What we know:
Layout: H1 2-17, H2 26-31, E1 35-40, H3 47-58, E2 68-73, H4 81-89, E3 97-100, H5 105-111, E4 124-128, E5 134-139, E6 155-158, H6 165-176, E7 181-184, H7 189-199, E8 204-208, H8 209-215, H9 217-221, E9 225-231, H10 245-248, H11 252-262, E10 270-273, H12 279-292, H13 296-305, E11 312-313, H14 314-325, H15 329-335
Parallel strand pairs: 1-2, 1-3, 6-7, 6-8
Antiparallel strand pairs: 4-10, 4-11, 5-8, 5-9
Amino acid sequence: METITAARLAAAALLSLVPLSASADPVADFYKGKTITLLVGSSAGGSYALYGRALAEHMPRHIPGKPTMIAKFTGGQGGGLDVANSMSNTVRPDGLTIGMTQQTIVLHQVLMPKYAKYDARKWYWLGNVSPIRNMMMVSDKSKAQTIEDTKKFEVIVGATGPSSPTAILPKTLNKHFGSKFKIVYGYKGIGGLKLALRRGEIEGYGGSWVAVVTQLGPELKAGKVKALAFASRTREPTNPKVPTLVEVMPDDKSKKVANFLAAESDYGRSLFLSPGVPAARAAALRKAFEDTMKDPAFLAMAKKLRIPVEPTTGDSLAALTAELIATPKEIVDLAK
């Protein structure tokens, strides 16, 4: 009996030294050998593409099972609505698709609910790589070289679609500030707007400042483009003399509208999952995102691409989303 017991103890000890099988980690077991799609509601030519490709390259290392990841760009003409609607209605909630779409998408749910076939409160937010401050920008070809000048001179600006920041910013300024932006729709993402600006078809556009830094570097260095105002709750550190929308608005109500719209900057380049993704997979992807934000290789790539990394948590995005969707009707109506 003692010999049998000793043998069993020895066998148990040996088993404890053997690595656990893949089945002991169902998340790793699920992701092993699979491909995750990062579905990006933007064109392949702007800062979304830079973030998307960087994440697709580095985030898989931190996901159990080490799947591959590809970034798929759907275009930004509809303000990323296609991605938002797909993530809530047609994408299988298995954790193999991650969404990253226009930072105005939560505001869009409040402002234009008939087009929003989604509820952002039901998404599982992984986190935000960095706040992205949107702005109105003009070239040196425009007669308007300050935000006050736009009240005196018409400025032809390009936009991708009516729910994109490229349109929301000039429309907000026209309505509440009194500017004279003439909006031309239909451009395909920041890449299309950049070409139109260089060709002289337009005099400026609204969008993220990081896209100007990364896409119009030569023009920016030569002083051929400049920001007029930032749609953010705080001033852009690299342009401390340029005012925010809140600062230029003429009265208290319009300032509240501007502050509401400026919340989009807090979403920046955020990632989220469809409602219903299994909890263990969702938690693993959130941790993978957080680990990627501290990954030296990812940070080095971001520095090389000149894209900021100032991460915020998925929980903070969920709280902000609930706050924005509960905005008083009076402010929402004014913003509309």
